[in-house]
Give the backbone structure.
Amino acid sequence: MAKVKIIMDREKCIGCGSCVAVCPVNWEIKDDGKSKPKKTELNEVGCNEKAAQVCPVQCIKIEKA
Ligand code: SF4
């Protein structure tokens, strides 16, 4: 079972790209201009923690089991 779950509220995302800048391994901007995590279930939080911190609208939440 995954140890880390990424929950993102795409409604709130303003497409600033900060999450992609600090964590390109798991974040990308999609065609609608908003970002999206490539994986939402991971074994380690890695740079996703940073992505959640830098998001100006705080729409990235990380759940640790
Ligand atoms: S940092 Fe937040 S608002 Fe900016 S693109 Fe990422 S999820 Fe969207």
Remarks:
- The mean pLDDT is 97.
- The pocket of iron/sulfur cluster is lined by residues 13-19, 34-35, 54-57, 59-60 (CB under 6 Å).
- The longest strand covers residues 4-8.
